[in-house]
Design a protein that fits this description.
The protein is of the alpha/beta class. The chain is built from ten helices and ten strands. The structure holds NADP nicotinamide-adenine-dinucleotide phosphate. The site of NADP nicotinamide-adenine-dinucleotide phosphate has 28 residues, from helix 9.
Length: about 280
């Protein structure tokens, strides 16, 4: 199946807000000059989504880099996340205001619960529903939510998450969670979408890279795009940031998608959220 998407393509979320299909991950980019370079290169390459989190300790630098760019705030989709230590009704409001202040903006596009911390996550969600209602965030969502966490949230709240950000690449292919979310109208966002670059020597990835004349990273990102997920590769190198955006001019065949779908080995670089109550 040929899929017509380009770097300006967006997915419509379940509350009508649109999210870009490609974003820049920023985990581990903290020094001001590295953040400036990464954000400016990404905006120049056409990225319009920046993914951060309170836990990445770079919100302030990201806010400054956006301010010093030539792209306006309104054109940029900023995602940030509630830290595990800030769960709870009141502390969610406090943590959110601190993120806003560090980012030096008056709204975020998407606010996510970073991890499904048991007991307190539904109180945090209640606060996030109120932030949404007040217009402080354009959309709210979750991260690392598996089906049990989503079922629990559905039972205890009135707003469905717009997004679930999960570890997702051919080597950790969360097919069931992806299908569950997509059937529910929850957009899936893939983190660690190129498996941190550590599976580029895999024979099928190498073969497909040669076949399509694209790099291993591009083949893995394109696989995500064709699964209709949002991909947020991290790079601090201007060349690789550009390379990771050059994924809209080829199409992986159904047969090769099948090959990539069969590579799952539950390879994770983050804790396994299936183990969270
Ligand atoms: N919600 C969560 O719990 C969660 C967890 C983890 C990550 N995330 C988010 O998802 C983003 C992406 O995930 P990730 O950072 O874990 O992993 P990733 O994007 O799969 O891989 C990043 C690594 O790959 C390298 N790289 C990037 N492009 C490359 C290319 N074209 N060729 C070769 N190497 C390349 C980067 O190095 P260079 O910088 O040197 O290019 C970096 O070491 C994060 O930055 C963060 O925003 C969310």
């Amino acid at each position: 199946m040929t899929m017509q998407v380009d770097i300006n393509s967006k997915l419509k979320l379940n509350n009508g807000i649109e999210i870009p299909r490609l974003g820049l991950g920023t985990y581990n980019i903290t020094r001001k000059k590295d953040v400036d370079r990464a954000i400016h290169s990404a905006l120049e390459a056409g990225y319009r989504l920046i993914d951060t989190a309170a836990a990445y300790y770079n919100e302030r630098e990201i806010g400054e880099a956006i301010k010093s760019s030539t792209v306006t705030r309104e054109e940029i989709f900023i995602t940030t996340k509630l830290d595990n230590s800030d769960h709870g009704y009141k502390s969610t409001f406090r943590a959110f205001e601190q993120s806003l202040s560090r980012l030096d903006t008056d709204y975020v596009d998407l606010y996510l619960i970073h991890w499904p911390i048991s007991r307190r996550r539904n109180e945090s969600w209640k606060a996030m529903e109120e932030l949404l209602e007040k217009g402080k965030c354009k959309a709210i969502g979750v991260s690392n939510y598996m089906i049990n966490h989503l079922e629990d949230l559905k039972k205890n709240s009135s707003v469905l998450p717009a997004v679930n950000q999960i570890e997702f690449n051919p080597f950790v292919f969360e097919r069931e969670v992806k299908e569950y979310c997509q059937n529910l109208g929850v957009a899936v966002e893939a983190y660690t979408p190129i498996a941190r670059g550590r599976k580029f020597k895999h024979q099928d990835i190498k073969r497909l890279s040669d076949k399509y004349g694209k790099t291993e990273a591009q083949v893995m990102l394109r696989w995500g795009i064709q699964h209709n997920v949002i991909v947020i590769p991290k790079s601090s190198s201007p060349e690789r940031i550009k390379e990771n955006a050059d994924i809209f001019n080829f199409n992986i065949s159904d047969e090769d998608m099948g090959v990539m779908n069969s590579l799952d080995e539950d390879l994770r670089y983050s804790p396994d959220p299936h183990n969270y109550d």
